[in-house]
Structure formats: structure tokens, C-alpha cells
């Protein structure tokens, strides 16, 4: 199911965690922009898995409200003329995405109480967002937290053959992103 259809169907009470009211079109556009300009390049979040699980609305290894909000924060940075509802200051377009970032951070404690791979992906997505708004030190904090959660999951160890192929690949990809992204984010900000 394409993201526009999945997003349109889900803009209902199921998405009560969203900090602002917005149209289905804006919601779909923010997600599309996040993947087009950032997440497909960095490979932090696998788009097809995110879209699949977004459509189901269930918290999984590839989707959670926390990750969803982080994706919306990233997508907000790429919208050319941001509507005021996605800005923390309606008169300052540089604050676009801040409502989503704040809402994601409000969910962080409960997310860390029962972490999944989506927790790690959400933390790395927040780190990317913060690097994009020149808050590098804070971004490093969240990428470091992602690395620590990845270590707690044992992602740095060999994946047992008893795991199915999709799970093994998801674990490997998440480890790769958490170990390589902090360095590449730093290098990108030097130029």
C-alpha cells in the first residue's frame, strides 16, 4: 500500500499521539520528504517496512509512535513553505519540526522501558534531525544512546542462525547504521 493511502487511512484517533492537527496530505508529504531527502540515503529506517507497519498501526521492530514522530520531524525540515502548525513558532520557519521532536522526546522514557529496533532507529533519526539543525552535541547524545541500546540488544554479536532471514537482516542493518552514522554525520557537518 503506498504511503499516501496508508497515511490517509491512519489519520484517525489511532494517531492521537501527533502533537498537531494536520491533513492527510501534509502527513503523507512529510513522510515522503523524510525518505526522499534523508532516510533513504542514510538507511536509518527501511521505508517499505516502516510503511507496512505504519499501515498496521502496531508497534514493531520497524514502527512505533516514537519513530513516526522522529520521521515527521526530519520530513518537516525539507518542506519549502512550512505551514505554521508544524513550527513551534508560527512566525519562524526555522522551528519547523520542533513540535514533532518535542513529542518524540516526551515518549522517550516509555520507549526505553520496552525498547525495540524501532527505538534505536528513532534515536538515530532524532540525531539526524538535530545534526540538520546544527545541534551537534545534542545529536551525539541521542546517537550515543542508540549505540548503547544496540549493545544491550547484542547487535554487535553474530546473529544466531535460528533467527529468520528478515530478523537477521534487520539486526545487521540497524547495527551498521548505529556504528557508521555518527561518523558520517560529523563529516557532513564539516562541509
Q: What features would you describe in this structure?
A:
The protein has 191 residues and is mainly alpha-helical. It is built from eight helices and no strands. Helix 6 packs parallel to helix 8.
In short:
This protein is mainly α.
The proportion of residues in beta strands is under 5%
**Helix/strand/pairing category:** mainly alpha
Q: In angstroms, what is the radius of gyration?
A: 16 Å
Shape: globular
Keywords:
single chain; 191 residues; mainly alpha; 0% strand; globular
SSE diagram, text form:
Elements: H1 3-10, H2 24-42, H3 47-56, H4 65-76, H5 98-113, H6 117-132, H7 136-153, H8 165-189
Amino acid at each position: 500500500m503506498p504511503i499516501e493511502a496508508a497515511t490517509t487511512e491512519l489519520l484517525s484517533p489511532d494517531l492521537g499521539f501527533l502533537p498537531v492537527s494536520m491533513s492527510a496530505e501534509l502527513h503523507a508529504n512529510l513522510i515522503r520528504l523524510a525518505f526522499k531527502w534523508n532516510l533513504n540515503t542514510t538507511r536509518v529506517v527501511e521505508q517499505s517496512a516502516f510503511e507496512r507497519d505504519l499501515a498496521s498501526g502496531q508497534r514493531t521492530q520497524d514502527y512505533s509512535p516514537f519513530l513516526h514522530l522522529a520521521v515527521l520531524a526530519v520530513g518537516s525540515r525539507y518542506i519549502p513553505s512550512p505551514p505554521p502548525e508544524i513550527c513551534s513558532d508560527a512566525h519562524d520557519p526555522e522551528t519547523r519540526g520542533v513540535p514533532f521532536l518535542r513529542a518524540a522526546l516526551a515518549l522517550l522514557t516509555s520507549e526505553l522501558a520496552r525498547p525495540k529496533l524501532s527505538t534505536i532507529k528513532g534515536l538515530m533519526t532524532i540525531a539526524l534531525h538535530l545534526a540538520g539543525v546544527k545541534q551537534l552535541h545534542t545529536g551525539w547524545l541521542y546517537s550515543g544512546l542508540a549505540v548503547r541500546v544496540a549493545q544491550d540488544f547484542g547487535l554487535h554479536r553474530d546473529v544466531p542462525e535460528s533467527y529468520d532471514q528478515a530478523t537477521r537482516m534487520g539486526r545487521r542493518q540497524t547495527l551498521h547504521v548505529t556504528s557508521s552514522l555518527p561518523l558520517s554525520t560529523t563529516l557532513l557537518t564539516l562541509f
